[in-house]
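Subject: for your reference before the review

Hello V.,

The reviewers asked for a structural picture of the protein, and I figured it would be easier to keep everything in one thread rather than splitting it across files. Below is the amino acid sequence we used in the manuscript, unchanged from the supplementary table.
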Amino acid sequence: MINVGIIGFGTVGSGTAKILLNNRALIKKRTGLDLNLKRIADLDVVTDRGVKVPDGVLTTSASDVLNDPDIQIVVELIGGIQPAKKFILEAIGNGKNVVTANKALLATHGEDIFKAAHAQNRTVGFEAAVAGGIPIIKVLREGLAANNIVAIYGIINGTSNYILTKMTREKVAFAPALKEAQALGFAEADPTFDVEGIDTAHKLTLLSSLAYGIPLSFDKVYKEGITGITPTDIQFATELGYKIKLLAITKMSDGEIELRVHPTMIPEDYLISRVDDVLNAVYVIGDAVGETMYYGRGAGDMPTGSAVVSDIIDIARGCYRGFGQSELSDYRIKEMRNVESVYYFRFTALDRPGVLSKISGVLGDHDISISAVIQKERKFGEAVPLVVLTHKAKEKNVLDALDKIDKLSVVADSTKFIRVEGKE
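And here is what came back from the structure prediction:
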């Protein structure tokens, strides 16, 4: 019998407990493992979590889990940095294996945790830290282990995806879309981590480290959120044959690794562009397997609990392999200014002869060529939207060109730009 202790009895903790208790016989039949939920620690042991817990399992003291010599696997599900880090390190120091869904902790302090686990010959499982019930960690660690990873593109934040879906379908602005997401429980009262791309960057940090063997590099991820996306941009994207998604991107490029999170225009006929509402998807390209996509619920008690229990099972089997401290590569992270992409520009330009030639002249001076132009409104002498889609260009050149263009007398406001992936 394998004894498990959970610290944190919130949404994911209750889902994990429900699976361990209700599916214990099923897990034993399929794996031969008898997983016994011995303890659950939480400051609140009174609130009904919708799961019947046997007498003697609940406790208000994390020490009852961490110091129990019979518990082999500790599951940390309280989130945040402290005291989660302290609990995990204490569990490892006590000779226990650990499972966590804490992407923020691992992305920012993971090196300390994995180093401690390596020194103690212990394991830290984190399948639930990325994309909820989608087993993307196992895919990268095992299923695609024989592949050089060419690129990963992920929609891995359900809150932002829900907001962009609502903005696209109903042609509403960001603020009312966010308000509805909060009312439905899809967004926190303070949605900063979700809508500014920070949560997505935490997850991308873990995926990129697994894919390329690089150190956990959250501080080097380029992060840009969705708060600046407008219904106007979504409409123009639609006319050009694209949808806008908050995309996590990591890829090998000129011997360097790109790490970036930002709103991205994706061709509307691509499978990943059809992933809507709170659903997640991860699109992985391997040199041997080619293009693959993994799709499902990226959050919630049962999907995330399913991922937690999968780690518990793998650790109990003795077949879990996480980050290896001796395996880190020396790939450099590409600076964002050196990244190349296709770009969407929306200029606010005066409607008069010669304006487009002035703008295109500056773009040409910075090695940026135009592939498409849209100007629908005609208000001679007034400022109107002028949309340009480029061929592939370097970010540094784009920023320099836009700085010059925005200073032109024929341009009335700062230029909006969105990066484009897919067809050039």
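For the response letter, the relevant points are probably these. The first strand starts at residue 2 and ends at 7. The CA atoms of residues 100 and 159 lie 21 Å apart.

Happy to draft the paragraph if you're swamped.

O.
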